[in-house]
Amino acid sequence: EIFHEPKDEL
Amino acid sequence: MNILRLAGDMTHLISVIVLLLKIHSIKSCAGISLKTQELYALVFVSRYLNIFTDFISLYNTIMKLIFLGTSFSIVWYMRYHKIVRRSYDKDQDTFRHYFLVLPCLILALLINERFTFKEIMWTFSLYLEAVAILPQLVLLQRTKNTDNLTVQYIFLLGAYRALYILNWIYRYFTEPDYLHWITWISGLVQTILYGDFFYYYFLSWKNNVKLQLPA
């Protein structure tokens, strides 16, 4: 699940 | 958060402030593409669907609210403000923006990291942001007397994504498992679209003359 951490960029 | 990312966010923020300043102080949106501004409003709505579901930081939430709020207020000003809307170059701003929206949506349905609603909307927002500047660049090329604030606004908007690319490179080398191909490629395409503009921007800056894109 490396791709699906919460998106931290704007 | 690294300094490159922060610089990118701040450049983005300043670009919006410059645009609002122009609209607010001289009550004019001459040279600004409403098509591009509407696309940005759509970009932020589709990207920030996670605003209430995933809490990342106070900074993150506040910035999201600012980008949503400012993009909608710019569209409102250009469409409905009784003085500002008169300066809108409607006849010049003819780019058909729905021709950008549909292909981006289809591409997001085909190429994404995960087939969920939120993920597809996020991906759609990345694809759309990459091309959303096109109506603005077309308008810039058509406009004879572009004022300085419009040029600075476009430059800052391009600089923001260029700084994000440096941030991605930095994160790739400093964070384990940091791989986001879709974000990177869209961001790269977005920055490349500015290539021509950047070239003439630096030329006009070097020769100290007004920027005008060749037809």
Automatic annotation (TrEMBL), chain B:
GO MF annotations, alphabetized: ER retention sequence binding
Keywords for this protein: Endoplasmic reticulum, ER-Golgi transport, Membrane, Protein transport, Receptor, Transmembrane, Transmembrane helix, Transport
Membrane topology: Multi-pass membrane protein
GO terms for biological process, alphabetical: protein retention in ER lumen; protein transport; vesicle-mediated transport
Residue stretches spanning the membrane: 55-77, 98-115, 121-139, 151-170, 182-202
Top-rank taxon, per record: Eukaryota
UniProt keyword Transmembrane, yes or no: yes
Compartments it resides in: Endoplasmic reticulum membrane
Coiled coil: none
PROSITE patterns found in the cross-reference section: ER_LUMEN_RECEPTOR_1, ER_LUMEN_RECEPTOR_2
Assigned GO CC terms: endoplasmic reticulum membrane
Any single Pfam family the record assigns to this protein: ER_lumen_recept
Family under the similarity heading: Belongs to the ERD2 family.
Protein name (Swiss-Prot/TrEMBL): ER lumen protein-retaining receptor
